[in-house]
Amino acid sequence: MIKKLLFIVPLLFVGCVQKSINVSDVDSEILKTDTIKVEKFRNNTSTPLAGKKVSAIIAAALRNRGFLISDKLEDEENNEKFIIKGSVNEWRYKTGIDGEPAVNFSLRIIRNKNKKIVFSGMGSISGDGYDSLGILAQEISDEILNKID
Hints:
Radius of gyration: 18 Å
Structural class: alpha/beta
CATH architecture: 3-Layer(aba) Sandwich
Number of helices: 3
CATH topology: Rossmann fold
Order of helices and strands: HEEEHEEEEH
Helix content: 25-40%
């Protein structure tokens, strides 16, 4: 009986994913014909290149939805209608037996002409030991960007 319980109890915790997504209302319509520049996200983690990775995921998610994404470099003149800025606050595998992945980032969509924030969103997620940071970041991105699509 004890052997059966030792096998069943861990199964109850498989796939325990914790997620929190918060988004604002969209202040103005963002059209698929509007050019959007995704700037490199600020990296507030100890993981190198986390900001660059999340920026690339956001840009790819928007491109896949049909939005026009600018490929200009950071220091080039901005003629885009919207700019996306953000920060990555967690991008790591937690220590422990399973090494659970954890991701947290926030983003703001800013109208370039008047520098007004038209949308903001943030998300946190931690997965199980079989998930990757990239998959979790894509999941958060999709949920946040569903609001503007």
